[in-house]
């Protein structure tokens, strides 16, 4: 009989972030071998022991390529070490035919994605594992053959989405998680992409990431608000058997409490949904731990209460080998959250699973599926013979659906891997022809946001041809029943309109708002699709309707008919959404954003500046144009009009002055921040400045002291002079001279 095996749990603490250093954050975590301690503000510690405690807080250096490696003699744990400890274990298990699951838990910004996916050269467990899978396959000379299928999903607001299909082709309410006796828990209709090389799996993950960010815009989400799961189905075919194992790599959403993030409205709902998934996960872990400690006790595990736990049911309390990596913030300001993560991890390590090798499942599955088919036929026959009760009738409907699913699964199983590859190639070719598959080197717009954490998270690509930007209200979160009749009428009217390729919601957005044409000469041309849209679309602060009125020579951008040629780093505003245009062959979006060349404040300020000058122009026009039309100043009515307008002008001037003050203050603030940033980037200069400041203070002090001394001397001198006998006043040399 298979031995029960505990969930393997590791914790990892990251370095301080810039903000935490600036806030003089205190370190509240210490680690010694497998134990981790957390200290509260009074210095009292709570200790936990895990399978692994990874110290990644300090003791590292850049190896010259951006990769962070441990300094000589330090205990810093780098990405390779984490992969060798946890990632390799997952792969070994998969190779032996076990289902495996690795999930990362922790509050936002604690380092989950760093461990799972990694950044730049510091690749995480997911990419290294994918590389390793194909390296092992290439080095295998046993005669076995291998088949790898990849799925990528996101759970957001309790809806499961397939990240391998474009946003606009997804069902609005997401995909269904189903459970059947034969197939177990599975997602109905999810893409399983066959991959035969590291490049293919890498491109698939890139595609999923792109769809993830695009998808998140539609819902105002950020990556940390959704749970992402990469599912790798790994099949080994030997001469006498077939083994299938599923590898689930799960990057959970941030675990912070909604209260702490100050979330409101839609964000609050998101937070509640994430918390629902995470708190159900917590409850399941608690119940499973209870069950493992007391196997005889009847414990109900609430898997069905959230999509996440339903999906992870097998990984948590079934036949899977499971590893959990908990990311910790080192800062004392996050003490509460980190302590709660440690408690979560502590409970998880008590769970015990009984993993089994999934040998020959395909043949078994096919046999079972055929049996089910037979049973259904018999049921139908009995229905025809009139020997059926109500319960059987009800069952029949359910069975019919199950059989349809089973038959679809059977059909899929009967296809060879080569057939699946060929089918996928054709599908990809078709999508590429329609421009649906995204190449990260095509021009794009990237979002700008007040919150630097949210900046650069959303990318919209412009493949060759025309891309339509608009507001497809069907995607709006309000239910249709709440829409006004007027809205409904206008929606009906606009039903014939094409669906925009890029959807942006918010005030000022038109159903078909703008287009960007990626022309054959490589230029991208922006056009507003109607007058109202032109007023609500800005290029570097200026509305398109204003640019269209301008003399072509004065216009800041090259005009092509009614459109404008976009230039790398141009700021664009559509309704309430701020973006920057990126030509990836000039530099990547990440580099552009990090350079500070385009940011939210700049875009907002140039918009305000343009609005001000447009208003001034309008007032000037309305003030002076009547003079030309009306007969003369003696006309009383005209005089009144003039006075009215003068008042209006004064009012506008005052408003403008106020706005100008605000703008200046903001500009000063930005200037100050830029200066600070430059100093931080160049500490030498900072030191010089400090020395200079220190020097000035000292010389000022010396000057003051000197001045005071002189004053005292003059006073003494004056006293001496007044005290000296009048007659023989000597011709003294002044002490001050
Ligand atoms: N072990 C580490 N070594 C160096 N830097 C790290 C490490 N872990 C995390 N970081 C840095 O900390 C920051 C936050 O990490 P990360 O984005 O992985 O957090 P997260 O928990 O995934 O956040 P979110 O929930 O928002 O996705 C990043 O800048 C990352 O580079």
From TrEMBL:
**Coiled-coil positions:** 362-423, 598-683
The record places domain Kinesin motor at: 6-351
Residue sites binding ATP per the record: 106-113
| Range of residues in the leader sequence | none
A single Pfam family, by name? Kinesin
The Acidic residues compositionally biased stretches are: 477-498
* Superkingdom of the source species: Eukaryota
Q: Show the PROSITE patterns listed in the entry.
A: KINESIN_MOTOR_1, KINESIN_MOTOR_2
Electron transport as a keyword?
A: no
Q: Does the keyword Nucleotide-binding apply?
A: yes
Q: Where is this region: Disordered?
A: 470-499
Q: Which UniProt keywords apply?
A: ATP-binding, Coiled coil, Microtubule, Motor protein, Nucleotide-binding
Q: Which family does it belong to?
A: Belongs to the TRAFAC class myosin-kinesin ATPase superfamily. Kinesin family.
Name of the protein in question: Kinesin-like protein
